[in-house]
TrEMBL record:
<feature type="transmembrane region" description="Helical">
    <location>
        <begin position="122"/>
        <end position="141"/>
    </location>
</feature>
<protein>
    <recommendedName>
        <fullName>Tonoplast dicarboxylate transporter</fullName>
    </recommendedName>
</protein>
<feature type="transmembrane region" description="Helical">
    <location>
        <begin position="161"/>
        <end position="178"/>
    </location>
</feature>
<keyword id="KW-1133">Transmembrane helix</keyword>
<keyword id="KW-0812">Transmembrane</keyword>
<feature type="transmembrane region" description="Helical">
    <location>
        <begin position="219"/>
        <end position="247"/>
    </location>
</feature>
<dbReference type="Pfam" id="PF00939">
    <property type="entry name" value="Na_sulph_symp"/>
</dbReference>
<keyword id="KW-0472">Membrane</keyword>
<feature type="transmembrane region" description="Helical">
    <location>
        <begin position="347"/>
        <end position="369"/>
    </location>
</feature>
<dbReference type="GO" id="GO:0015140">
    <property type="term" value="F:malate transmembrane transporter activity"/>
</dbReference>
<dbReference type="InterPro" id="IPR001898">
    <property type="entry name" value="SLC13A/DASS"/>
</dbReference>
<feature type="transmembrane region" description="Helical">
    <location>
        <begin position="45"/>
        <end position="62"/>
    </location>
</feature>
<dbReference type="GO" id="GO:0016020">
    <property type="term" value="C:membrane"/>
</dbReference>
<feature type="transmembrane region" description="Helical">
    <location>
        <begin position="309"/>
        <end position="335"/>
    </location>
</feature>
<feature type="transmembrane region" description="Helical">
    <location>
        <begin position="267"/>
        <end position="288"/>
    </location>
</feature>
<feature type="transmembrane region" description="Helical">
    <location>
        <begin position="390"/>
        <end position="409"/>
    </location>
</feature>
<feature type="transmembrane region" description="Helical">
    <location>
        <begin position="421"/>
        <end position="441"/>
    </location>
</feature>
Length: 540
């Protein structure tokens, strides 16, 4: 008999012998009540119930007018889903699947309609980029790249500002091509691996340069954390917020020119460059001094980095093939749609091929190309994909479903009526305000959830006040990514905060200047560069 079965049988026998009701009232009622309440709180039953309860209250007591029951129900579903998102009552992926049963149950849309929102070209783009990120991580390509660039920028003797530039620049570059969350997960061990050479704890307190080392350690963790978020802003694959913008833009305005990989990068990359410069200057001013280089020289030099690099050995065939697939995919992304005069290779397929199409196609090659080790083993197999971040993929699907629900239920029309008082406000004033509004919300929830919440409102606001919707939707998207103040603001912040090197005070003091620069940059570049890239000077 299996020992586990025997243990389960004995456990069940013990349960049977336990009385279901107390045999004697011995005055322990209060203790039982406290224990029951503690169990409810520990198992999140109260916050789980808060979602359905809020939805029921809205559906019972909110009256939006005659013939607007679907819009009221949509409001109730929003309350349910967002409470679960904000409180982590259930796992993020599970909460993101809630629209699949709530929309049909509340009469908002059919099951087929809501299910289609969870898999489209945009979701394919994210799914393929996640698989590519797993291949990069599996073959230690990110580590090789980081060590090469870091040893290049280390300096001899050590120059802390230059070293910070190398670490943060590497992180930003990687985050441009894969999602910022896996990028942070990959790069943070590289950063902390460098920091592990420094004394910490009691050893650090006895060191003559303890203060300088501690400050520089904070700068490295903050730099990786924020550079990953900034790099993700540059491209569609770098963060879910940009993907949500593309999906909602095509949903609300399907007849308009779509936002492509190349068009977004033409605007997002300059914004990211300005933010990266602000990040580097802020870190150097706040965490580096004239004594930092001398303090680090005792623990870090190029010899250490090159020794680690030599342990990786020469680049293997598999690494070269993964880089070739990545390079080919980047070229295809950038050349699918170029300009009106030079349409790109997408015209060969009559516009039926999207960025997600080529992403899945190139990712499929990873499961076909051999890894060069013999035995028929390929670069990737499905076993290596167990770490796929399905929760983020489902979150994106939920965002698209909510955008469809806003439109199908008529809730967008009601919201636009309520925002009519802004009709006379200057558009160039509203855009920074939209950015600040989104930037404030994103500190209390993920950037993807913040984008999902504000974009439908901003899209309708744009139509109501008579300006191009992208003049508001783009600031809302960028503002949601200015998540620098709290650990809860984004997954990269959670990863960085979890290292133990930084505090919330460090994040706030470092993040505020970068946030201010981000809003100012957007206010300048959107009506100038953005107008050309997105065609915002044209009437809808």
């Amino acid at each position: 008999m299996d020992p586990r079965c025997s243990q389960q049988w004995e456990s069940s026998m013990e349960d049977v012998s336990t009385p279901l009701l107390p045999l004697h009232a011995d005055g322990r009622t209060d203790g039982c009540a406290c224990s029951a309440l503690g169990s409810l709180l520990a198992n999140k039953y109260l916050v789980i119930a808060a979602g359905p309860l809020a939805s029921a209250l809205i559906c019972a007591f909110v009256d939006l007018g005659q013939g607007r029951a679907a819009a009221r129900n949509m409001l109730g579903v929003l309350a349910w889903v967002f409470i679960w998102w904000l409180t982590d009552a259930v796992p993020l992926g599970v909460a993101s699947m809630a629209p699949l049963f709530l929309f049909p149950a509340f009469g908002i849309s059919s099951s087929d309609a809501v299910a289609k929102a969870y898999m489209d070209d945009v979701i394919s783009l994210v799914l393929g980029s996640f698989i590519l990120a797993l291949a990069i991580e599996h073959y230690n390509i990110h580590r090789r790249l980081a060590l090469n660039i870091t040893s290049l920028f280390c300096g001899d003797p050590v120059r802390p500002p230059l070293l910070l530039l190398g670490i943060c620049g590497t992180t930003m570059f990687i985050s441009m091509w894969i999602h910022n969350t896996p990028c942070t997960v990959m790069m943070m061990p590289v950063a902390t691996g460098i920091l592990q050479r420094f004394p910490r704890g009691q050893a650090a307190s006895s060191s003559a340069h303890a203060h300088e080392v501690r400050r520089f350690s904070k700068a490295v963790v903050l730099g990786v954390m924020y550079a990953s978020t900034i790099g993700g802003m540059s491209t569609l694959t770098g963060t879910g917020a940009n993907i949500i913008l593309v999906g909602m833009w095509s949903t609300y305005f399907p007849e308009q020119r779509p936002i492509t990989f190349s068009s977004w990068m033409s605007f997002g990359f300059p914004v990211a460059l300005v933010l990266f410069a602000a990040l580097w200057v802020t870190l150097c001013l706040m965490y580096c001094s004239s004594n930092t280089g001398r303090a680090l020289s005792a623990y870090l030099d190029r010899t250490h980095l090159r020794r680690e690099l030599s342990l990786l050995g020469p680049m293997a065939f598999a690494e070269k093939m993964v880089l070739a697939v990545l390079g080919g995919l980047i070229v295809l992304w950038m050349t699918r749609s170029l300009t009106n005069d030079i349409p790109g290779w997408g015209v060969l397929f009559h516009g039926k091929v999207g960025d997600g199409t080529v992403t899945i196609m190139m990712t499929t090659l990873l499961f076909i190309i051999p890894n060069g080790k013999g035995g028929g083993e390929k670069l990737m197999d499905w076993g290596k994909c167990r770490k796929l971040q399905w929760n983020i993929i489902l979150l994106l699907g939920a965002g698209f479903a909510i955008a469809e629900g806003f439109k199908a239920s008529g809730l967008t029309d009601i919201l636009s009526e309520g925002l009519g008082f802004l009709r006379g406000a200057p558009p160039l004033v509203i855009a920074p305000v939209a950015c600040v509004f989104s930037a404030a919300i994103t500190e209390f929830t993920s950037d993807d959830a913040a984008t999902t919440l504000v974009l439908p409102l901003l899209a309708e606001l744009g139509k109501t006040i008579g300006v191009h919707p992208l003049l508001l939707m783009v600031p809302g998207t960028v503002g949601a990514q200015l998540s620098y103040l709290l650990p809860t603001a984004s997954p990269p912040n959670v990863v960085g905060f979890g290292t133990g090197y930084i505090t919330i005070k460090d994040m706030v003091l470092t993040g505020i200047p970068i946030k201010v620069v981000g809003v100012a940059t957007l206010a300048v570049l959107l009506p100038t560069l953005g107008s050309v890239v997105f065609g915002m000077d044209q009437k809808l």
